[in-house]
Amino acid sequence: MSIPTGEVAGEDLFALATAAADDLYNFRDNYFRLTSEERDSKLQSQSDLALQILDKIPIEKRKLPLQRATYEYLRGKILDAVPVYKKEAEDHLSKAVKLNPSLADAWLCLGNCIWKKGDLNAAKNCFTFALGKGPNKKILCQLSMLERKLSHDAENPEEVVDESIKHAREAITLDVKDGYSWYNLGNAFLISFFVTGSWDHSKLLQSLKAYQNAERDEKMKSNPDLYYSCATVNKYLENYERALTGFEAAALMDPGLSAMEDARMIVLLLDKLDYLLRGQTKAKRLSSLSSSLATVDLSHSYKRATMDLLSEGLNKGIAVTGKVLFFAKKESVAPLCYVLSDSNHTCYVITVYGICNDAIKEGDQVTLLEPFYRFVDFSWKGKHYQFKSVRVDFVEQLLVNGKYLSSHHAVRTSIYAQHKA
Question: What gap in Å lies between CA 53 and CA 46, rounded to an integer?
Fold first, then answer.
């Protein structure tokens, strides 16, 4: 947008300044094909341009009772578009809400500005006060995001994230077609999965469904964060092919994301598992396996089985015993991955999320209770991956050397610590 020349009515200048501010935020939220330095520089130049348009408004027009609050709001909004906190932006936005407490967008901007300063509780007060004036989907989404941030240091993070889910759902009821609101709900369910111990698959599935609804909104199809988040869910669902495709799509839209690194980590893991499953040393270990698998005392509610008898998904009432052949060392914290073999010499992988890394060692005998099984079978960039896999989320799902693990082996924060966004 260019700076107007000549005589322009004050009302028209307000409209031009509003449009310039909207363009500024649209660029900030949707333009990704730049380095962070280039993007910040362009953002600053567009902010300067919007301020120049705003400064064209005659002083006498700015001071009119109905327009003064709008002027202060627009100036604060434009100043706050840059990534860093600016006290000048907070001062203008504070004036705007004092002059017109019903100006919801000013409360939204003020809350975001204070959030940058690090005062999260004050930011929440801005959002909740504005909602007291009436429902607003943008404010509900921001409040939901803020609550997820507050959950990191909360005594009861699950309760705080439940509030985040609640407010995300309220935003959707106001506009069921808004992709950003669905994306926000997907993020809330994903964080809920981490906070509650990373074992409730329904949270991941609800997150994935919300992201899929977000994709129906045309304007979200160019949002790399949506593709990245969806790929993250697929990674933890161990839908490896979908995760790799999603991370690549996100990286193409925004090279600044860590998406290519995430994809690389998945491929490294798959390659390591493939190597271990096909390894030459495996045959030597398997030769003594049958005699080394001891009988494990199990409740009558469990039926003993081998890997070839499992069905896709949860196998209720089934127990599978195997020997740990290898621990697949890798860079990421979770999941831990092991290669096992059952009594039929069938090799398989277990992915372990909620257990510390010293609980299972090579040579241990592991009994999986009601194993959650999947058969991985896909090709990626010319390489074919195929293996049996069982997911383990918490200590109660297995026995090690015939014994249940103690509670101190449980790890509930290993994954959550990686996802504080």
Answer: 11
